[in-house]
Every structure is written in C-alpha cells, then in structure tokens.
Amino acid sequence: MERIGQFGWRAKKIVRRLNEEHGEHGWELRWKWGDEFIPFAMAIQLYEDAYVSHFTKNKEVLENLLASAVDVYDISPRDRESGLDYSIQQHKAAHYQDIAVRRSVLRLGRKFHGNELLQIRGVESPLYHLNPGVVQFHLPEMIERPALSGWWGPDSIEDFYQSNKYVISLRDQKSPHTTVSVPQTCSSATVDAEE
Predict the structure, then answer these.
(1) Which of 2, 46, 101, 143 could pair with 167 in a Cys bridge, judged by C-beta atoms 3.0 to 4.6 Å apart?
(2) How far apart, in whole angstroms, are the C-alpha atoms of residue 186 and residue 15?
C-alpha cells in the first residue's frame, strides 16, 4: 500500500513503476475513508456530494451559475460530451469537476438556463470559485492527515481526492476491502488519464 497523491505530469512514469513492481493488472487506486479503502465509484460520489453540499449552503452561487451558464467544462468544450458520466474522458488529463457540477445541479432538481459555456479551471477561468481546489470538502475531518500539498487549498475537494488516494497491491488481498472492483478509469491501464 502506498499513498500516491497527484499523478499529473508524472503519470506515465508512475504507472510504469507500479506496473514493474506489481504487474500490469496487479494494483488499483483506492481512497482511504476512515479504516476502509473505497473504490473510485465511492470516492467520486463523495467528491460530488461536496458540490451538492456547497450549492445547498451557497444558494446564491448556485443561482448565479444557473442564470449565466448553459453548461460547464474543465479542459475544453468537448468535455460536455461526458454529460453525467465520469468514465467518459476525452483528454489525457481527467475532468471531474464539470461532471460533478452537472450531476449536482440535476440532484438538486435544477437546470442550467443561461447562455454561456463556462470553464471551471484556473484562476483566470470564469468559474474558478467552483474549482475543486477551492470548494471546501463537506467532511474535512475525513481527509487523511497530514494532508498532501499541491495546487489545491487545504480541506478542499481536491485535497480529499489527492490526500486520500492510495495504491493497493492486489497481491495483498488479506483485507476484504481490497476485493471490490474499480472502474477502468482507475486501473493501471488508464491511470494516466486520471488527472
């Protein structure tokens, strides 16, 4: 088991090393949640839940978003092709925040009714305030300590996503929580598209 953090530009090198150490299909990404290691599907649900919590507590932010945006994207307008599906990724770097925002809007029973396609990315993007490195995680006490440092803020959604991420060797199948299958987006075959 290894706390791995952000892959980013190091993805190919990290995947090569992990494949050499554990075999091409001998490892998975998991997120620590208390005493358990949860699969991507559960971790991304918690990531999304943080956006729902944020919009519920900040109704004006939600109303402004819905009034101005026809939709949102992260890396490029092609991100819209993912719709509500986290597994549909068009780039080497994954984009989860736009999908999480779309799904959160739907879960809140709302719809975009603006006319602008707005980006959620860096400081210069119009929706930077919805960047996962800015929006606070709704259960900060569940973020692994010490938290990892990076481009994200402390106790943010991204802090949870990166700080709680581990590599689990499938050879160490001693614990029952390492037997749940992980979606392809978190396997050794596609991890370079993870961030």
Answers:
(1) 2
(2) 11
Taking each helix axis from N to C end, the angle separating 59-68 and 40-57, rounded to the nearest 10 degrees, works out to: 100
User: Which of these, 100, 97, 96, lies nearest to 108 by C-alpha position?
Assistant: 100
Full residue range of the structural domain in which residue 6 is found: 2-193
The total domain count for the chain is 1
> Residue 20 CB: number of other CB atoms within 10 A?
9
The tens digit of pLDDT for each residue in 47-87 reads 999 999 999 999 999 999 999 999 999 999 999 999 999 99
